[in-house]
């Protein structure tokens, strides 16, 4: 692992201390790694959802027509 330095304001440091001093103490590094990974996963998920939403908005009319055709087809069977 690599070592990096970060600057934290007092409120963020206090939050980090609360997270590391619970019933099962964890290292600051472990908590920061977990937080960065969680933020990364969340950011990637939100970006993917935005791309998918854009695709749906772009093709909304076509998807609507296809859905209606499918319902008509299934109703006729």
Structure, explained:
- It is a single chain.
- 77% of the residues lie in helices and 0% in strands.
- The protein is an all-alpha fold and 77 residues long.
Q: Keyphrases for this structure?
A:
mainly alpha
Give me a quick take on this structure:
The chain has 77 residues and is mainly alpha-helical. Helices cover 77% and strands 0% of the residues.
Q: What's the SSE pattern?
A: HHH
Q: What is the overall pLDDT average?
A: 94
**Helicity level:** over 70%
Biggest sheet, in brief? none
Could you state the oligomeric state of the chains shown? single chain
The outline comes out as elongated
Helix-strand makeup class? mainly alpha
The beta-strand count equals 0
Radius of gyration: 24 Å
The total count of helices amounts to: 3
Percentage of residues in DSSP E strands: under 5%
Q: What count of structural domains? A: 1
């Amino acid at each position: 692992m690599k070592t990096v330095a970060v600057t934290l304001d007092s409120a963020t440091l206090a939050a980090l201390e609360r997270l590391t001093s619970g019933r099962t103490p964890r290292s600051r590094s472990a908590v920061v790694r977990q937080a960065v990974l969680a933020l990364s996963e969340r950011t990637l998920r939100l970006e993917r959802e935005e791309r998918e939403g854009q695709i749906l908005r772009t093709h909304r009319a076509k998807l609507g027509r296809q859905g209606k055709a499918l319902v008509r087809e299934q109703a006729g069977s």
